[in-house]
Design goal:
This protein is mostly beta strands and 327 residues long. It is built from three helices and 19 strands. It is elongated, with a radius of gyration of 47 Å.
Amino acid sequence: MSWEEVFKQMFGPDQPAEALTRPATEVSLDHGPAPEPAPDRVRPEPVVNVAQAVLKGEVNRLFVNQQFNQSSDRVEMSQWNMLHVDVRVTGSSASATITIQGDDGTGNYVALPDPLATKTAVGANVSYDVVVGTRYARVDISSISGSYTAGQGFTVIVTPFRSGAASQADGANAVFGITTGAAVVTDTAGTIQQYLRGIVKLIVDKISVISERKAATATATIADGQSLSGEVDLGGHALVGLVIPSGWQTATSITFQVASATGGTFVNLYDDAGNEVTVTVAASRGVGCDAVAGALAPWRFIKVRSGTSGSAVAQAGGDTITLVLKA
């Protein structure tokens, strides 16, 4: 039996033998065309949470049990702006100066300006962060003193990292200012902390002036046998109360005359309904003037009358009324 006959027995008489040489997608085995290959899955890009990203470089063990003065190898800082420093101390009466130095590639290392960059008399374990603005940083150990046996000395480990705001120890930073700095409210030189405290002080003082409304007083004296006082200058204050003296005569009312200028023509005061502005009083009383404050508000110069304009009451012996004012 030829291979063509075998093919026809397997796939049917109507299927041409040439199908053996066709691409797989063209061969019909009574099952339809071959399915399209599944598309490659697209792996979603990972979402990076910047707040959780570790912005930290390689840990560098620069000194291990160091017992003599020396400068360390340099640490690349071009991607970092901070250096975390761990100092571990073993030995008897150990002491040393630890300085973080910087260089921009010239080989001329100098102490960094951060106040924490130089620590003197280091005799115990300590960790701190230093602001670095140079391309390279290194650690310099000097002024070592004390007694050390094998396996003792100064071990210094540094780790560069990036911080949006430089981390500083409280009270030890000349840039941000110590917490006890006095408020600066002028153009005098000071730290940021002092300027901020000065701004707060100026604001609080201004608010106090606006809101406190300190009370003031004036006096209106009615001469013996008279019913109308002399002129009183309220000076832009509001009349909020009256203190009536103990010798006050029988008048139960006080009314007012007003003028727009000192020494001007005084007229009786009425409200906008045509009623004479009146305060009910009695001897030895403090009386609030809330009900008449609006009518009195436009007037700076006033006179106080015992009784009303139509029924004034003369005071015997002279009486002085205390006017309570507020700004």
